[in-house]
Recover the amino acids of this structure.
């Protein structure tokens, strides 16, 4: 039996799964027609900025597992990989697979299958860092060797790779399998799951036009789980006697990207002064109702290479105002005026309005313009923007922000970062040991301060609401409660069946 994964799926690399429904077959999944099966109903409130994202994420988390999950420090830990070793020269990673693992269709997880999956997935998982990969080879049935051209901490970061069965994007090894391509999305227990059958027989996922609509259904007892609780509902649900709320800090942060090719932000001094004019603690308090962590830059603050002594932008309204006053046009109310594209979501709108008020106090006019996410993506890609509020992945490893800010990163639409940041990330990418890695992170942080490509605002907090009709074992501090989903069970006095 393999070691328990840290969670049921991680946030998968963008683009790794392009479809999210398939019909499960064989004996791996329990028939939906069995009697007295326990049912868990999950509601996903869709937001205008990311239609369908929640549904895809639920499907991925339930069905597809990773070679390794990540600790909060950014270290990999076993999942489909039982263990691994790195060669003395740092150029070879030998991965030993957990035994007796099968896909939902009953076929075994073998080294050749994993090697094929890695060859397909690693270019997207690693982005330009994939250039360092020399080859992937299967050795026997349970060992895979990944060879690198030069040592890199991204060698181990690459273990956070999803392993679906080649040719079937959601035929995975996870605790649940998809059985119905129609709405609501349905999943059934994988009775052959290597860690044992889940405590819930069936899961049904329903999409709602908003988080508020899903919240209302939870309060009416028509749902068992609210996949993501909005900030408006969080405080009220925390006092509920029938619902338990679980929170964790996400590996994403709110960022206002600044276009250094736009006239208003061409000068580094202006972008630095804008950063000094933003009070991040006040943003967490006033825009996020205290549910967030003030940002200090692109590095996850619990990463093993992060230091509390790293340089960061503090709030200095006087210095910011002085910088802007020097460039103020005579008779103008503001020295700097720019437009910020903001996704149509209440949290994003609050963030933008708080930042707008703060910048007004130092002589900057920020015009807030609501825009759908596809338009913002296109604006970033073509660099036809001045500023844009984004929710950027930034942890726990450095491979993730590398993908967002490096000019050739898989998550970079084309309008983020600069040459100095590329060079700083490449130094992180090619660190030969932990000491070099820590030093490179310090250089990366300084590069983001010297020539800032954006304003890092706050790490976001995610909350899940779960009916107390289910017993939910605790998760590790700071981690998503969905990590324990396979262990959830109907409470002894409140079990429900699909026939209720």
């Amino acid at each position: 039996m393999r070691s328990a994964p840290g969670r049921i799926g991680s946030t998968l690399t963008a683009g790794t799964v392009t479809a999210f429904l398939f019909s499960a077959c064989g004996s791996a999944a329990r028939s939906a027609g069995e009697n007295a099966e326990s049912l868990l109903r999950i509601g996903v409130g869709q937001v205008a900025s990311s239609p369908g994202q929640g549904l895809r994420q639920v499907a991925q988390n339930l069905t597809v597992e990773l070679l390794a999950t990540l600790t909060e420090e950014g270290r990999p830990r076993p999942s489909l990989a039982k263990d691994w070793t790195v060669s003395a020269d740092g150029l070879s990673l030998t991965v030993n697979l957990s035994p007796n693992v099968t896909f939902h269709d009953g076929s075994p997880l073998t080294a050749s299958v994993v090697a094929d999956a890695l060859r397909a997935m690693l270019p997207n998982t690693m982005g330009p860092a994939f250039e360092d990969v020399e080859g992937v080879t299967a050795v026997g049935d349970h060992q895979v060797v990944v060879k690198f051209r030069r040592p890199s901490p991204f060698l181990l970061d690459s273990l956070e790779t999803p392993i679906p069965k080649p040719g079937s994007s959601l035929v995975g090894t996870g605790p649940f399998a998809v059985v119905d391509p129609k709405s609501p999305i349905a999943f059934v227990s994988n009775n052959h799951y290597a860690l044992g059958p889940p405590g819930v027989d069936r899961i049904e996922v329903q999409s709602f036009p908003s988080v508020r609509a899903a919240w209302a259904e939870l309060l009416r007892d028509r749902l068992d789980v609210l996949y993501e609780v909005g900030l408006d509902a969080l405080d009220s649900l925390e006092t509920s006697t029938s619902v338990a709320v679980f929170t964790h800090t996400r590996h994403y942060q709110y960022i206002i990207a600044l276009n250094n090719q736009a006239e208003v932000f061409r000068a580094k001094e202006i972008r630095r002064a804008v950063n000094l004019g933003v009070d991040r603690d006040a943003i967490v308090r006033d825009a996020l109702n205290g549910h967030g962590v003030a940002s200090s830059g692109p590095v996850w603050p619990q990463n093993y290479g992060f230091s509390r002594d790293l340089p960061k932008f503090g709030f200095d309204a006087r210095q910011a105002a002085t910088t802007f006053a020097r460039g103020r046009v005579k008779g103008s109310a503001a020295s700097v005026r720019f437009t910020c594209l903001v996704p149509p979501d209440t949290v994003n709108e609050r963030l933008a309005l708080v930042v707008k008020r703060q910048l007004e106090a130092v002589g900057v006019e920020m015009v807030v313009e609501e825009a759908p996410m596809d338009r913002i993506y296109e604006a970033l890609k073509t660099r036809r923007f001045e500023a844009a509020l984004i929710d950027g992945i930034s942890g726990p490893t450095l491979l993730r922000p590398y993908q967002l800010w490096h000019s050739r990163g898989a998550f970079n639409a084309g309008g983020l970062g600069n040459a100095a940041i590329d060079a700083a990330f490449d130094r992180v990418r090619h660190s030969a040991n932990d000491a070099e890695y820590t030093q490179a992170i310090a250089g990366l942080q300084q590069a983001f301060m010297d020539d800032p490509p954006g304003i890092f605002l706050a790490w976001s907090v995610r909350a899940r609401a779960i009916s107390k009709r289910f017993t939910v074992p605790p998760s590790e501090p700071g981690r998503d409660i969905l990590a324990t989903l396979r262990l959830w069970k109907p409470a002894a006095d409140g079990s429900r069946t699909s026939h209720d």
